[in-house]
Write a structure and sequence with these properties.
Elements: E1 10-12, E2 25-29, H1 33-44, E3 48-53, H2 64-76, E4 80-83, E5 87-91, E6 94-97, E7 100-103, E8 106-109, H3 158-172, E9 186-188, E10 193-198, H4 201-207, E11 211-217, H5 222-227, E12 233-239, E13 245-252, H6 255-267, H7 272-276, H8 288-296
Parallel strand pairs: 1-8, 2-3, 2-8, 3-4
Antiparallel strand pairs: 5-6, 6-7, 9-10, 10-13, 11-12, 12-13
Length: 303
């Protein structure tokens, strides 16, 4: 975090759980998903938590609906969120952020990963940010050498690295295909979980679609009611003309598991009619998918 914090109690997220205990006042820094997950974790174990996002692009890439939902959730959890501000100095158990002093016994740094590529006898061309530069097929500046995952700097998600690896194997075998970045899930392991796949509402507007948003709350789902986990909803974004599914967002206890179903719909360019007429077992929380499908057809059943 810089020389100004050389005496501050800072721990990197990767080393966090080497500690045997945590103090009372925690400041989490970062703009991304992991920072929210960490902030909520500390609140769940009854710590006083402040989340400092040093950019106004808090949770960049998520639909603004989800960002607003998360912001309200943090407030309801008594987690103070400070956006577009940088930690300025640490002294006497306090961290100054944006001119405001916050109680701080520990700073958890969840800021973006930086590229650290070791020197090699086979020098690879790097990007301006220090990651290994690759083509669309993940080939580096050296013929026959490929780079996927974190080192290539395109995504820091494990499931994306796995998909890139499969893509590279196919490319080596001579199977040429376009790597599709539009259908990968973004998961947040929060309480409740949050997941998103496909286009955000902002992106849909930019692309000029005439679109519809269909929502179905967990409070109207039988299994969610039985399990007393009714916080959340599904949000299905579709094209009005053909009914094609463009994006899906889920807030639910097992949202990160359920989002894969939406990925299949996007992959085969399914319509809301396909979603509505996909039979889901009852009682399951995943019934919210077909409920949202029928809602998109203006034929909502339990809404």
């Amino acid at each position: 975090m810089g020389d100004a914090f050389s005496n501050a109690p800072v721990v990197e997220m990767e080393n966090l759980f080497e500690r045997e205990a945590f103090p009372e006042n925690i400041v989490v820094t970062g703009n991304h998903i992991s920072s929210v997950e960490m902030a909520q974790f500390f609140r769940l174990i009854h710590k006083n938590v402040t989340l400092v996002a040093n950019s106004d692009y808090f949770l960049d890439g998520l639909d603004t609906f989800l960002v607003e939902y998360i912001t309200k959730k943090l407030a309801s959890d008594n987690i103070e969120l400070i956006t577009d501000a940088y930690p300025e100095k640490y002294a006497d158990g306090g961290l100054t952020v944006g001119g405001k002093k916050v109680k701080c016994d520990l700073i958890v740094n969840c800021n973006s990963r930086k590229a650290i590529i070791p020197e090699s006898e086979t020098p690879l061309q790097l990007t301006e940010r220090g990651f290994i530069k690759t083509t669309d097929n993940f080939q580096t500046s050296i013929d026959g050498v490929y780079a996927i995952g974190d080192v290539a700097g395109r995504s820091f998600l494990a499931h994306m690295a796995s998909a890139q690896g499969i893509h590279v194997i196919n490319a080596i075998k001579g199977i040429q295909a376009h790597f599709d970045y539009s259908t990968y899930p973004i998961n947040m392991y929060t309480t409740p979980e949050i997941a998103q796949i496909g286009m955000t509402e902002q992106k849909i507007k930019e692309e000029g679609y005439d679109y519809k948003i269909s929502e179905f709350p967990l409070s109207a789902n039988g299994k969610a009611l039985i399990e007393n986990n009714t916080e959340g909803l599904i949000r299905l974004l579709s094209d009005k003309k053909y009914g094609q599914v463009l994006g899906v967002q889920v807030v639910a206890e097992n949202a990160t598991d359920m989002i894969a179903e939406a990925g299949a719909y996007l992959k085969v360019e399914a319509t809301v009619y396909d979603v509505a007429h996909t039979i889901h077992a009852h009682p399951t929380v995943s019934e919210i998918f077909f409920e949202a499908g029928f809602d998109a057809m203006d034929k909502a059943i339990h809404k």
